[in-house]
Amino acid sequence: MTFDGWPAEALDFYEHLEADNSKTFWQSHKGQYEHAVREPMERLLAELEPEFGPGKIFRPHRDVRFSADKSPYKTHIGAHLTAGGYIQLSADGLACGNGLYQLAADQLERYRAAVAEDVSGAELERVVTRVRAAGPEVVGRDSLKSAPRGYAKDHPRIALLRHKGLIAWQEWAPEPWLGTRTAYRRITGFLHASQPLKDWLDGHVGPSGLPTR
């Protein structure tokens, strides 16, 4: 079956979950979650797989072990594509991301070296400009307030050097098109627009070689 967006019931489900994030609500509305939220995401991932690789839907339960917020359920559904890309639906609408959200220590070292180097650093600046011109924003994560150790505070790309993660991100508020084929076109449009950033990160940073915790 083709992906034709999410029905209005998907947004209704998350609006009510935000108001009543309880096991009682979840169990009594699990059928709505499966039919209106999860099944459309599964159809979307199946359609994206030939070009973007298999996708994985994240579990709906929150990890509350180290959180002061003990709400048991996530108020969004998220999925990750193995070839790169993140898709999220919530009561606030649709969002997509692509890039490296959290750089491991070895990745961060390679990232900063590539940003500081004249050729690769200038290339990243052009990539950021190109991605933003296509629609997505490019944002840093967990950025330092000052220059990282070993780098000059007046480096021409100091803003990029401060980041500990770099992603393309785009959000769309709830609109009627979210329940149509247009949702597929918006998602694939984002993935294509953000590809230059992913290509740069793949080429200059790559995966971490450190053991997984």
Features:
213 residues, alpha+beta, six-stranded antiparallel sheet, 7 helices, globular
Gist of the model:
The protein has helices at residues 8-19, 23-28, 30-52, 105-116, 118-134, 158-161, 182-204, and strands spanning 55-57, 76-81, 86-90, 93-100, 137-140, 166-172. It is of the alpha+beta class and 213 residues long. Helix 1 packs across helix 3 (30-52) and helix 5 (118-134) runs antiparallel to helix 7 (182-204).
Structure, described:
- This protein is an alpha+beta fold.
- Strand 2 (76-81) and strand 3 (86-90) form a beta hairpin.
- The N and C termini lie far apart (38 Å).
- The model has no long low-confidence stretch (mean pLDDT 96).
- Strands 1-2-3-4-6-5 form a six-stranded antiparallel sheet.
- Helix content is 46%, strand content 15%.
